């Protein structure tokens, strides 16, 4: 009989999003709870035997009690087993978010995988072998105990770990909390559910990172999913299906030889702007008037998008290319404009910015 599991990770409930201002940070914090509610609905819809959360359920051990209560409420839409693994953000310490959760009295279907010992689920049809973190960083491979763990021959062996698979992630990503690349094979696992890498990633057919269900950064590494894992029996290869979960999109866009019309056209092609966070890189050159128009277009789109980050370091302002040249009143304004233009050509970014602001203010002034 086929056993279905839902694999997810890296919820980081209670994350602050300190680098994002205004209402956007609050919207993103709320989106993480909504993602858990969607996971509960997916688990019920697909009638999974368990939901496996491979670490970093919470953003830290100091999250508010209200965050814990809201997490429980968000999970209440699925009455089957939830297996929650402590990760590097919410490591299982002597006093931590997990001990607080235990004191609050969690529901009986919520299992905290706080110890490296077998956990039998689904009437013994599957056994979860967890590798909980007890510190934020460790040089040891805490999944190694799975190799010798004894489980019934008829039960599925499911590993659950949080860390970096050695040699399979970008340089520098595997410095702490290592996991052997062949752990699933060594430990005779039918499936190894991993967390820590925030994108969906197949290590091998029995070993996957689910990624975060709600994206939290711009790199395009396929975040925003959960994994439906179907297993026909011990030794059978798993069938893994990506299930979209994310409510918000984090996109990157580069515009070369950018002008205001191009900014409006390309950003106008984005679907659901209020739920889009955009990193926009602008390059090329423009006269003062066109540059002011580009800035105005970006300002309009910043109000429409959930969040807009602009990198315009490669968009060069050429005062001489402006219609009419530099602003010149025959007096101090003209003198300041010329001086700022000279300094801007010399590479002073602040002077170039000041000249653009001067131009914009003069454009706003009514004619004399």
Summary keywords:
single chain; six-stranded mixed sheet; 17 strands; 368 residues; 8 helices; alpha/beta
Helix and strand layout, with pairings?
Blueprint lengths: L2 E6 L14 H23 L4 E4 L11 H11 L6 E3 L12 H8 L5 E3 L6 E3 L4 E6 L24 E7 L1 E2 L12 E2 L3 H4 L4 E5 L5 E4 L2 E3 L15 E7 L7 E6 L4 E7 L4 H9 L7 E11 L1 H17 L2 E11 L14 H14 L3 H16 L4
Parallel strand pairs: 1-2, 2-3, 3-4, 6-7, 7-10, 8-9, 10-12, 15-16, 16-17
Antiparallel strand pairs: 1-13, 5-6, 11-12, 13-14
Helix pairs in contact: 1-2, 5-6, 6-8, 7-8
Description:
This protein is an alpha/beta fold and about 375 residues long. It has eight helices and 17 strands. Helix 6 links the parallel strand 16 and strand 17. It is elongated and about 85 Å long. The termini are far apart. The mean pLDDT is about 90.
CA gyration radius, whole angstroms: 26 Å
Name the helicity range. 25-40%
Mean pLDDT, to the nearest integer, reads 89
Number of helices, where a helix is a run of at least 4 consecutive DSSP H or I residues: 8
Unreliable segments of 5+ consecutive residues: none
Biggest sheet details? 6 strands, mixed
The ordered H/E elements are EHEHEHEEEEEEHEEEEEEHEHEHH
Structural class: alpha/beta
| Biggest sheet strand line-up | 4-3-2-1-13-14
| Distance separating the two termini | 84 Å
Share of residues in strands? 15-25%
Please tell me what the overall shape is.
Answer: elongated
């Amino acid at each position: 009989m086929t056993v279905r599991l839902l694999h997810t990770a890296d919820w980081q409930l209670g994350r602050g999003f300190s680098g994002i201002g205004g209402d956007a940070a609050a919207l993103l914090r709320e989106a993480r709870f909504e993602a858990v509610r969607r996971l509960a609905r997916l688990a019920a819809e697909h009638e999974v035997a368990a939901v496996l959360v491979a670490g970093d359920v919470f953003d830290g051990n100091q999250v508010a009690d209200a965050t814990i209560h809201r997490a429980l409420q968000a999970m209440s839409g699925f009455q089957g087993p939830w297996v929650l693994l402590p990760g590097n953000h919410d490591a299982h310490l002597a006093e931590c978010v997990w001990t607080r959760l235990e004191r609050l009295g969690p529901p009986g279907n919520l299992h905290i995988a706080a110890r490296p010992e077998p956990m039998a689920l689904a009437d013994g049809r599957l056994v979860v072998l967890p590798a909980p973190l007890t510190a934020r960083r460790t040089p040891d491979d805490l999944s190694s105990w799975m190799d010798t763990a004894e489980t019934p021959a008829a039960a599925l062996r499911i590993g659950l770990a949080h860390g970096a698979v050695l040699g399979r992630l970008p340089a520098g990503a595997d410095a702490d909390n290592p996991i052997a690349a062949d752990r699933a094979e060594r430990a005779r696992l039918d499936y190894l559910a991993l967390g820590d890498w925030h994108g969906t990633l197949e290590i091998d057919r029995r070993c996957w990172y689910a990624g975060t269900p709600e994206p939290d950064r711009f790199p395009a590494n396929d975040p925003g999913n959960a994994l439906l894992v179907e297993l026909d029996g011990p030794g059978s290869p798993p069938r893994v299906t990506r299930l979209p979960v994310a409510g918000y999109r984090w996109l990157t866009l580069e515009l070369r030889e950018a002008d205001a019309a191009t900014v409006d056209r390309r950003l106008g092609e984005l679907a659901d702007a209020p739920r889009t966070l955009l990193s926009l890189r602008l390059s090329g050159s423009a006269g003062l008037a066109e540059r002011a128009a580009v800035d105005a277009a970006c300002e309009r789109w910043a109000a429409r998008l959930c969040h807009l980050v602009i990198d315009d370091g490669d968009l060069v302002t050429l005062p001489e290319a402006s219609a009419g040249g530099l602003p010149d009143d025959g007096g101090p304004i003209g003198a300041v404009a010329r001086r700022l233009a000279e300094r801007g050509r010399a590479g002073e970014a602040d002077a170039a910015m000041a000249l653009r602001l001067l131009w914009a203010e003069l454009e706003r002034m009514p004619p004399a």
